[in-house]
Specification:
nine-stranded antiparallel β-sheet, 13 strands, alpha+beta, 191 residues
């Protein structure tokens, strides 16, 4: 009987320690960034087409080095071909997957909000938040953009709730006009 009580006591203690440790463990929460904040944070904004997705090891991690041909530059002065470094990918039988990191297919057209890395390539502002897929309507030929985060919940600091929202099926011309308006406003504020 005493051994059962000791066992239950130890089990309860272990459970309490586990719960306390789990509560302190770090977690990743994406906080929603407004288009204004992303536009201000990005050092470059481009409309580009994915051309390749090679992967490689760097500092013990698998990385995908997605190559894009820049079709239009909305902000900054990136080269005509850029590389976006994204954590995760597949090498042989080893796969590394990271939530919130977008993946691209060769031929796919996107609008990207970019920040330079110390290695001379780029990262994405807000990962999936700074990624907008361009789709063309086969009937009208009109292009529209949809933000990668439009389909999953991110934390809204103003309401202190997780909400599913984002830009969905906005005409590309309207989206570009909004970004250009934000860029002009930002330039005027800096004067």
């Amino acid at each position: 009987m005493k051994s059962q009580i000791r066992f239950l006591g130890r089990a309860c203690l272990c459970g309490a320690l586990f719960a306390a440790t789990a509560a302190l463990a770090p977690a990743t929460t994406l906080v929603r960034m407004s288009l204004k904040r992303m536009t201000h944070s990005a050092r470059a904004i481009v409309r580009a087409r994915c051309v390749a997705n090679p992967t490689g090891w760097d500092a013990g991690e698998i990385w995908t080095f997605t190559a894009f041909e820049v079709e239009e530059t909305w902000k900054g002065s990136p080269k005509s071909q850029i590389t976006v470094r994204l954590l995760g990918g597949r090498i042989g039988q080893v796969t590394s997957s990271v939530s919130g990191v977008p993946r691209f297919r060769p031929g796919e057209e996107v609008v990207l909000f970019l920040e330079p890395t110390m290695r001379g390539d780029f990262s994405l502002v807000g990962w999936e938040e700074g990624t907008f897929r361009v789709r063309q309507d086969p009937r009208t030929g009109q292009s529209s953009v949809t933000q990668d985060t439009a389909s999953f919940a991110t934390f809204d600091a103003a309401t202190r709730r997780f909400e599913t929202e984002g830009i969905q099926r906005m005409p590309l011309s309207t989206f570009r006009a909004r970004v250009e308006l934000l860029l002009r406003a930002s330039e005027e504020n800096e004067r």
